[in-house]
Specification:
The complex is a heterodimer of chains A (about 110) and B (about 120). With about 110 residues, chain A is mainly beta. Chain A has strands at about 5, 10-15, 20-25, 30-35, 45-50, 55-60, 60-65, 70-75, 85-90, 100-105, 105-110. The mean pLDDT of chain A is about 90. With about 120 residues, chain B is an all-beta fold. In chain B, about 0% of the residues lie in helices and about 45% in strands. Chain B starts with a strand and ends with a strand. The mean pLDDT of chain B is about 90.
């Protein structure tokens, strides 16, 4: 079955700093999704990456997908407190028994002044 | 409404009681999913419906859990004889499941507390 690993699982950043969250997966897939979850809230779709080399940007967040390396990154530029949330990557995969979006465990991001 | 809706938003029940959780997907979405999320944890897949196909029930943790989807739209997740370990947020998502884009759109969740 497909395994999806995110790291780090916890990230404490200072405002203004840059950082990258990594999402590795174990089996071939060329579609990957990033979601954001605020405390006590549901998941909100952030990025949809549908092919190798796909890059999407929204504000201070940029996501990319390298299907050959089985790796997606979520890069945070000049972090602000509003970005504090948990970020999940999810890989589309039809070969297992886990539904067709396999989620990572999430990265809890805390941005401090 | 435009999004996925779930009801109730909160449910408190006593151990041993049965509960039903409801999900209304986005109109026209053929795929519907149920997940469970315990406090501070990731998502645990429960069950997946796609069109008229037999559901993928491989994630249901025990035979106390069941789900149905009537008319290809509304879904109900039923937990019989609830246990304290069933306490969690139950999330429903729907997807258009068309072409190359199968993004899931999540509802607000039902927070279940079993006393």
């Amino acid at each position: 079955e497909l395994k999806v690993e995110q790291n780090p699982l916890f990230l404490s950043m200072q405002e203004g700093k840059n950082y990258t969250i990594y999402c590795n997966y174990s089996t071939t897939s060329d579609r990957l999704y990033w979601y954001r979850q605020d405390p006590g809230k549901s998941l909100e779709s952030l990025f949809v990456l549908l092919s190798n080399g796909a890059v999407k940007q929204e504000g201070r967040l940029m996501a990319s997908l390298d299907t050959k390396a089985r790796l997606s990154t979520l890069h945070i530029t000049a972090a602000v407190h509003d970005l504090s949330a948990t970020y999940f990557c999810a890989v589309e995969y039809y070969g297992g028994s886990q539904g067709n979006l396999i989620f990572g465990k999430g990265t809890k991001l805390s941005v401090k002044p | 409404g435009a999004g996925v809706s779930q009801s109730p938003s909160n449910k408190v029940t006593e151990k041993g009681k049965d509960v039903e959780l409801r999900c209304d997907p986005i109109s026209g979405h053929t795929a519907l999913y149920w997940y469970r999320q315990s406090l501070g944890q990731g998502l645990e897949f429960l069950i997946y419906f796609q069109g008229n196909s037999a559901p993928d029930k491989s994630g249901l943790p025990s035979d106390r859990f069941s789900a149905e989807r009537t008319g290809g739209s509304v879904s109900t997740l039923t937990i019989q004889r609830t246990q304290q370990e069933d306490s969690a947020v139950y999330l429903c998502a729907s997807s258009p499941h068309e072409g190359r884009r199968n993004e899931q759109f999540f509802g607000p969740g039902t927070r279940l507390t079993v006393l």
